[in-house]
């Protein structure tokens, strides 16, 4: 890296990070014939991230979304295992107040056999008092439990999670910047994942590295001028807490004027093969920047890969907002 690119430095966020060291997870249904629904041997994400360790057996009660106290009306969940599809953090807080002993989460808007990647996002203070284990299962398995309940059966579940918290856990936020302007343009990518998959998010992290190399070479060969009024900042951050702690730190302690940011997450899919749809997600209105959003969307749509068949039919890859 030559002198055009500012030195990379690390920012360590300790106050928001609490690491859960996961050793083993097992979720089973104990009716008629025991059935293993999910295990860390088959899926590294079957434990809800930040779940405390524990072993519980109990009757399963389905509460639907489970994010409001009204969802528990006429339902006795004390000393029972809650099955829900709502926001895990909200369900966890509310159901614990009613005495739940365990949690099983699923999502309704994903493939029926996929085990969702979910997190409680507990603060270190909340984690110290958390005692109830939480696991995740596929939609297919969740619906089979719901079907039992609808037919008058009482399914019992066993949840076993071996894990430990480390209060001194640290995850570096790595930053490289280009230029010295007051305003900052950010490009993000998370560089950690419990399963360590190529698409999620080696694709984004590697692309960010390539962008740094490309900018650096262009400057070195005088094909690009050093920005004067803008600083381009490249950031690699931990996934569990994302870019929010970093942005809070930058704006609170460095008075940074961040005008726009792009998050590169799971950008490694080849749509011609996966038949997937590219999701373009806008930021909340109160921090949106219409000018930069319009520029990004324009060039993104123009550069989407185009495939031609033998009949010369042009197929534009699908996208949605």
UniProtKB/TrEMBL annotation:
Recorded superkingdom: Archaea
The keyword Membrane belongs to this UniProt entry's keyword annotation: yes
Stretches that traverse the bilayer: 12-32
InterPro entries: DUF4910 (IPR032589), PA_dom_sf (IPR046450)
Domain DUF4910 intervals: 179-274
Record keywords, A-Z: Membrane, Transmembrane, Transmembrane helix
CDD domains on file: PA (cd00538)
Stored Gene3D superfamilies: 3.50.30.30, Zn peptidases
Name of this protein: DUF4910 domain-containing protein
Organism: Ignisphaera aggregans
């Amino acid at each position: 890296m030559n002198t055009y690119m500012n030195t990379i430095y690390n920012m360590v966020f300790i106050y928001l990070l609490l690491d859960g060291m996961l050793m083993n997870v097992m979720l089973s249904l104990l009716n008629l014939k025991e059935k293993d629904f999910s295990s860390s041997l088959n899926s590294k994400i079957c434990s809800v991230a930040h779940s405390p360790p524990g072993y519980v057996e109990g009757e399963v009660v389905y509460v639907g979304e489970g994010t409001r106290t009204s969802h528990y009306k006429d339902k006795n969940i004390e000393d029972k295992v809650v099955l829900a599809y709502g926001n895990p953090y909200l369900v966890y807080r509310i159901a614990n107040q009613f005495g739940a002993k365990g949690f099983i989460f699923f999502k309704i808007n994903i493939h029926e056999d996929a085990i969702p990647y979910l997190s409680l996002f507990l603060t270190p203070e909340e984690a110290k008092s958390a005692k109830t284990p939480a696991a995740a299962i596929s939609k297919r398995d969740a619906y089979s439990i719901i079907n039992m309940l609808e037919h008058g059966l009482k399914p019992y579940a066993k949840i076993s999670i071996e894990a430990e918290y480390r209060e001194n856990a640290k995850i570096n936020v790595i930053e490289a910047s280009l230029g010295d302007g007051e305003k900052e343009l950010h490009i993000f990518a998370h560089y950690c994942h419990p399963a360590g998959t190529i698409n999620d998010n080696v694709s984004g992290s590697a692309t960010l590295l390539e962008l740094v190399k490309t900018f650096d070479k262009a400057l070195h060969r005088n094909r690009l001028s050093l920005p004067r009024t803008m600083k381009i900042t490249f950031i690699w951050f931990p996934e569990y807490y994302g870019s929010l702690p970093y942005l809070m730190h930058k704006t609170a302690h460095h008075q940074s004027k961040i005008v726009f940011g792009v998050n590169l997450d799971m950008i490694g899919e080849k749509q011609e093969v996966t038949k997937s749809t590219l999701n373009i997600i806008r930021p909340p209105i109160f921090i949106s920047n219409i000018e930069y959003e319009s520029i990004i969307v324009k060039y993104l749509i123009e550069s989407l890969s185009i495939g031609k068949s033998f009949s010369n039919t042009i197929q534009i890859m699908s996208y949605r907002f």
